[in-house]
Amino acid sequence: MIEALSYDFVQNALIAGVLVSIASGIIGSLIVVNRMVFLAGGIAHTAYGGIGLAVFLGIPIFLGASLFAVVAALIIAFITLHHRNRMDTFIGLMWAIGMALGVVFIDLTPGYSVDLMSYLFGSILAVSQEDIYYMGGLLVAIMIIMTFWYRDILAVSYDSEYATLRGINVPFFYMLILILSALTIVVAIKVVGLILVIALLTIPVYIAERLSTTLAKMMILSGIFSSFFTLCGLWFSYRFDIASGASIILVSAGSLFIFLLLNRLRLV
After folding, report:
1. What is the pTM of this model?
2. Is residue 220 within 8 Å of 22, Cβ to Cβ?
3. Is the per-residue pLDDT at 54 higher than 90?
4. Residue 187 pLDDT more than 80?
5. Which of 78, 14, 59 is nearest to 244 (CA)?
6. What distance in Å separates the CA atoms of residue 39 and residue 62, rounded to the nearest whole number?
7. What is each CA distance from 249 to 64, 124, 227, 231, in whole angstroms?
8. How many angstroms separate the CA atoms of 47 and 67, rounded?
9. Does domain 3-264 have CATH number 1.10.3470.10?
């Protein structure tokens, strides 16, 4: 692995892995404590429509996927705030339509032959310098928002009624969390793919949640665990020549199994 570090694409993959892991740790914590895992899954699959649109229009993949994901997040926020009893139906519908639109746009793109597996299971080794700038910018934005609005987001996440009584604009912060989740999901798709993105956002968070007493500590531990799993997964991917996205998730799942076993034995 040491000799591989001389290659630019490996360096880019390592940097991207750490950036996305830290962002996933922070946002994944919010997704879990707000019980938004199913909503995040709907956003992830709807984002595939944006990937297809970007390919069809010849615009950057991140741009197309981000626009689609943010629109999906806003629609989901509206539905969950005003039509919660229909939430499952609408999210399932958006899930299917997003995937279908992605496939249709790609099929309609003249002369374009795309490797769908790279979007479904990740292609971190294909990360470009521009992708890293986007990931870094998103992480900075997330950290700034969490620094200035941590207490408000904390209140909304754990007790929305109390937050409302305090005069906090609950719908605004709810939509903000979903939008940040959408953008994080888009960059995480590059690392582990659309199919596995929810695992990256939840497995490290689950372990961190069991070891934390505050949301801030949970976010920090989630980012550390996620970065460790990602780097280990990249090593296994390089060592055994297997898909990087699947390798990262298998390392995460294996670590979760070990943690649960140790927890069962009262060792952690």
Report:
1. 0.90
2. no
3. no
4. yes
5. 14
6. 20
7. 26, 13, 12, 11
8. 8
9. yes
